[in-house]
Amino acid sequence: MAQFTININGASHQIDVAADTPMLWVLRDHIKLVGTKYGCGIGECGACTIHVDGVATRACSLPISVVGDSKITTIEGLSENNDHPVQKAWIEHDVPQCGYCQSGQIMNAAALLEQNPSPSDTEIDTAMNGNICRCGTYTRVKKAIKTASSQG
Amino acid sequence: MTFFKTNYNRRSFLKSSAAAGGGMLLGFSWLASCTPTDEQLAQIPEEWFNINAFLKIGDNGIVTIMSPNPEIGQNVKTAMPMIVAEELDVDWSNVVVEQAGLDTAKYKRQLAGGSQSIRQGWQSLRMAGATARRMLLEAAAKEWNVPVAELTTSKGIISHPSGKTAGYGDMASAAAQVPVPEGIELKDTKDFKIIGTPTKNVDGPKITKGEPLFGLDYQKEGMLIAMIVHPPSFGMKLKSFDDTTARAMPGIKDIFTIDSLPEGVESQWSDVNAFPQLVAVVGNSTWEVMKAKKALIVEWEVNTKGENTVEYKKGLTKLIEKSAEEPARKDGSPEEAFKNASKIIEKTYSAPFIAHNTMEPMNFFAHVSADKAELAGPVQTPEYLSKTVSNVLGLPEEKISIMMTRMGGGFGRRLYGHFGVEAAVISKKANAPVKLIYTREDDMTQGTYRPAYEVKYSAALDENNNLTGFKVNGAGIHESPVFENRFPAGTVNNYVADKHTLDSNISTGAWRAPRSNFIACAEQSFLDEVAEAAGKDPIEFRLELFNNAIANPVGEDNDYDAERYAGVLKLVKEKSNWGTKREGVYSGVSAYYCHNSYVAQIIDLVMENGQPKVQKVWCAIDCGIVVNPEGALNQIEGGIIDGIGHAMYSNMTFTDGVPDQNNFNNYRLIRHKEAPVEIESFFVKSDIDPTGLGEPSLPPVAAALSNAIYAATGTRVTQQPFVDNVNLDKSTL
């Protein structure tokens, strides 16, 4: 076990865990922020996507020991009032079915728009390809990203 | 209006606050589980009045409607309360929806499966709303001393021609004392205001904020994390294990074996489980338990022989080489028809095992103490889980409570609630509240797969290219995929259906649109081929067959309505570009009936780097009255993408009983790039009570795709996954 101080959603947290503990489980088990989801544990599905200094990152494959001073944002910290353009667009297009993968989809989409405010269809496909939705909401995800992009 | 006799027992109308909903028991109410928004806080009434099992009304007019059935993403948590709200005649913006827990005394069929929640709940949900409205009216009539018949309602306001008005909140207290009416009038469908209006998912804003809604998110004070280790191979069982290293690892509380289905315990259909004997690891946190699990040294022994994909495929092929001892159905003389045919078309189709792969892996919370068991988690069959937990623990069912959390997908996987039983057994043994979590690998290699299937079709055409004979002969692991009384049965004079099953130690279960998810693709691909051999347009050919069934149906057991079937085909043809030639664009059509609904689809695709890229899917559906068009469209789109994805890419294979795939790096699911560019759906206008919607859009789409692939490449793809069986680019991403 080791002591880590990490910045999550603007707040500093002291965590005492093994150095190889992935951020996914630090968030879910220790900080009780469960919006970040477990889907595969090997970085293949995108359900656990968070932002590390603004960059979309798979929390299941990110050990706490490498986080350092980086600023971590989770779905809970994306906006104060559920009003990030991506969240608003997701509600407008009624994207979720089961909803389990959507935190990851939203975090990935938000990071995409931060880097590329008006992505083309192909750029959206490429950026979102690592996020699996088993319910098949892909066409709505794309529509919502386009709406968020124009609101951006 | 139509008058219906209410069929509630008194229990359904409990007026004590104890009836406020099972959700309260485990802290999963809308206020307790999530941070309420300012808007919600402003809505909280001073006092709630329980009118019946489905709804309570606040003194300020806010209505809480209980959603009785498990929510797996099929949107019943929005649609079912909409039906109650419609008959109650309340403003939807004043409705708060709460998930009910398992309560068989109050609710019927709390199950998610067979696309039946809305269809089977329709009448009781309407009556719950209508009786509550009637009780409010009677309370107002008494207070104002006027006849009930003179009162009207609109959006939660009761009005009398004299100018008197009152909100439902004002009358709720008195209404709760009114006797339950013995009969009730329901609205005419033309007066529906909420039903038929596109309505957003009630959990949408909670999902976009990442609030704790799912089983995996469930937390309780003092809760431990549990994981299981199951045999690596179907046919193997536990021999022994060495936990010396694992037990000494940080955070580990206990390691032991469990038997979730001990011999002698009465089992039910939902108790499908290839691995009831497991090693359980219990500890403080998920990562610690995951690490200890890897450090366990487990010895397994062969119980029954592990199977190989090549072998069971051969077994299926052998079965369909011959007729069944007794055909499942036979009309006329197929032998004669084939003997006299001028053309015979034959083709065999197959599909592999596939896993459900809900994005949220199997998990469940359980807290078992000496005299009771509290469970919470994602399960499609809570009533069955309760029964098995009762049998296994030896606790009466009234001592067991089950709260349904929102589910990260179901697709049939969570009909089989062994993970809930395992959680209960582990909790009892560990003497602590535990949340059992499967890793993705545990989940994907556990079984209850969609079975592997193979089917052979034969068609006989006469010299005028009329279909004179038809044979279907299908085999599958544990079940045949053939529905003997479905189309084209009834349209052809000489018909035979044969069914075979192959035993296996690989466990199988219902997977979204069971059997249909394969047979629709085979049947509709084959009919395309027959239409081509007959020199007919594929849609005209099918319509010709439906005309036979309308004018002169063969046999009496046909389980479809040929006019409605033809109706969706005509509608999809009209809405699409069918028949117009466009350079580089290829089309395929398909139609199918299941879960009481009719679907026809047309796909347009282009070929890009040797891969089909679906440009557009047109879908026509006849599913009776559409309760929530927004959610309905979402289900249709999801079913289409799911159907295309699994037919194209997904495959579960086995080597000596060991699954060759165990995570998303080697098991392929459809991804963003591969999804259709556009989907457009059309509902047949209907006054028929609602029918299934969660499954029917999935089965036919694979055939629309395979028929379009044929149009583009000249290759008939007969084996799933398509990506392995035509000359397509096999890159994984």
Describe this structure in words.
- The complex is a heterodimer of chains A (about 150) and B (about 725).
- With about 150 residues, chain A is an alpha+beta fold.
- Chain A folds into 2 domains: about 1-75, Ubiquitin-like (UB roll) (Roll); about 85-150, [2Fe-2S]-binding domain (DNA polymerase, domain 1, Orthogonal Bundle).
- Chain A is built from 5 helices and 5 strands.
- Chain A has helices at about 25-30, 85-90, 100-115, 120-130, 140-150; strands at about 1-10, 10-15, 50, 55-60, 70-75.
- A 5-stranded mixed beta sheet of chain A has the order 2-1-5-3-4, with helices on both faces.
- In chain A, a hairpin with a 2-residue loop joins strand 1 (about 1-10) and strand 2.
- The termini of chain A are far apart.
- The mean pLDDT of chain A is about 95.
- With about 725 residues, chain B is of the alpha+beta class.
- Chain B has 3 domains: about 1-210, Aldehyde Oxidoreductase, domain 4 (2-Layer Sandwich), CATH 3.30.365; about 215-305 and about 360-435, Aldehyde oxidase/xanthine dehydrogenase, molybdopterin binding domain (Aldehyde Oxidoreductase, domain 4), CATH 3.30.365; about 320-355 and about 450-725, Aldehyde oxidase/xanthine dehydrogenase, molybdopterin binding domain (Aldehyde Oxidoreductase, domain 4), CATH 3.30.365.
- Helix content of chain B is about 30%, strand content about 25%.
- In chain B, the strands form 8 sheets. A 7-stranded mixed beta sheet of chain B has the order 12-13-10-20-17-18-19, with helices on both faces.
- Chain B is globular.
- The termini of chain B are far apart.
- The interface between A and B is large, with 61 and 66 residues.
